[in-house]
Design a protein that fits this description.
By secondary structure, the chain is α/β, with parallel strands linked by helices. The chain folds into three domains: 44 residues; 197 residues, P-loop containing nucleotide triphosphate hydrolases (Rossmann fold); 127 residues, Roll (2,3-Dihydroxybiphenyl 1,2-Dioxygenase, domain 1), CATH 3.10.180. 32% of the residues lie in helices and 23% in strands. An eight-stranded mixed beta sheet has the order 9-10-11-8-12-15-14-13. A seven-stranded parallel beta sheet has the order 3-2-4-1-5-6-7, with helices on both faces. The radius of gyration is 22 Å and the shape is globular.
Length: 379
């Protein structure tokens, strides 16, 4: 109980803008100390930040671009959170470069919170705790959250899962490699930035990028001189408004709920064999269930373990065994959807209430959905 109280108090301080609490919470998340309960407390307050992912090969100028974007955003009065994922020290496991070296001019600015994280061998250019740290900064009220990846090239596609807008930074002289990169990070980038555009070869790489970019922006910058930064920020804002909107109906898959006898046993398959990682674990008292969430792109898998022998999940397993329990869809207007369903005679199993992760939801009986229990979640 004391640990829970500490978590609640820390979350309140973070939401009130306490920078010391924010730094402490970031450390807890990176070290996985009670991180699940902390994230559960703050997640419902997230969802307002513009989250930018900046990736590209080492030496492309990602940190300089980040630095210039921060300066521009601060000139607009925007607050910024930066997650810089660095290579890991083989001795300590910590970040080798670290925020002591990066973006020094912003460290005294309370409107800028910079955190370096060690990749710790996690593939994809991002650390395992990066998603939760991005949620923390979002909930803490940062207008923009920038995630800068390690910089290992084509394998850095995981950033697209976390960022609303992914910016790929390249430099002149890499044009011969563009076609080779097609199947990797080029496919997930929303914006291409040719940095160091004052060097020879800029026309060639720009031409190569246009051949694979479709309608995606290809921009030139000289980040060290501050050139082209405003255009990058404008493109990112436009990209969030257009490319990342849901389908016309506004309905999209949120998660698949899978009933299991033991979350820990099930994770041996999902983590060890499939390479998925838990983003959050929590217990939902009113549902009498323990939940582990594993993101798969934007949607996720939720493993559901009963905490009491007479819970819905326990009864489901007794009757049918382990397996798919429900499908969850996000809808833009939950109350409107519920009203329409009730008017059509559909069986709604509960009034809207708060569930795992802080979302508002209802369940629709399988008799109304073609045999599958359906959860509707307020987007």
């Amino acid at each position: 109980m004391a640990e829970l109280a500490d978590t609640v108090d820390l979350a309140k301080c973070v939401l009130q803008g306490d920078l010391r609490a924010l730094a402490r919470a970031a450390t807890i998340i990176e070290n996985h100390q009670s991180a699940a309960s902390l994230i559960a407390e703050i997640r419902r307050h997230a969802g307002r930040s513009l989250i930018l992912g900046i990736t590209g090969a080492p030496g492309a100028g990602k940190s300089t671009l980040c630095d210039r974007l921060i300066s521009l955003l601060r000139s607009e009065g925007k607050t910024v959170g930066v997650i810089a994922v660095d290579p890991s020290s083989p001795i300590t496991g910590g970040a080798i470069l670290g925020d002591r070296i990066r973006m020094q001019q912003h460290h005294a600015d309370p409107g800028v919170f910079i955190r370096s994280m060690a990749a710790r061998g996690i593939p994809g250019g991002i650390a395992r705790a990066t998603a939760d740290l991005a949620t923390l900064l979002d909930a803490a009220g940062r207008d923009v959250v920038i995630i800068e990846t390690v910089g290992i090239g084509q394998s850095e596609v995981e950033i697209a899962r976390l960022a609303q807008v992914t910016i790929l930074v390249l430099v002149p002289g890499a044009g011969d490699d563009v076609q080779v990169m097609k199947a990797g990070v080029l496919e997930v980038a929303d914006i291409f930035v040719v940095n160091k555009a004052d060097l020879p070869g800029v026309d060639k790489i720009e031409q190569e990028l246009h051949s694979v970019a479709d309608d995606r922006p290809v921009l030139r910058t000289v980040a060290s001189e501050g050139q082209g930064i405003a255009e990058v920020l404008q493109a990112a804002r436009s990209c969030k408004r257009t490319a990342h909107l849901p389908a016309e109906t506004g309905v999209r898959i949120d998660h698949l709920g899978i009933a299991v006898r033991s979350v820990d046993e099930a994770l041996k398959f999902y983590e060890s064999q499939l390479g998925l990682h838990v983003s959050m674990r929590e217990t939902v008292a009113q549902e009498r269930v323990s939940v582990a969430m594993l993101p798969v792109g934007e949607p996720r898998i939720e493993l559901l373990e009963s905490t009491e022998p007479d819970s819905v999940i326990a009864k489901f397993i007794d009757k049918r065994g382990e397996g798919l329990h429900h499908i969850a869809l996000k809808v833009p207007d939950l109350s409107g959807a519920v009203a329409r369903l009730r008017a059509s005679g559909a069986r709604i199993l509960n009034d809207p209430r708060t569930g795992a992760g802080g979302h508002l939801y209802v369940f629709v009986h399988p008799a109304s959905t073609g045999g599958v229990l359906l959860e509707l979640i307020q987007a």
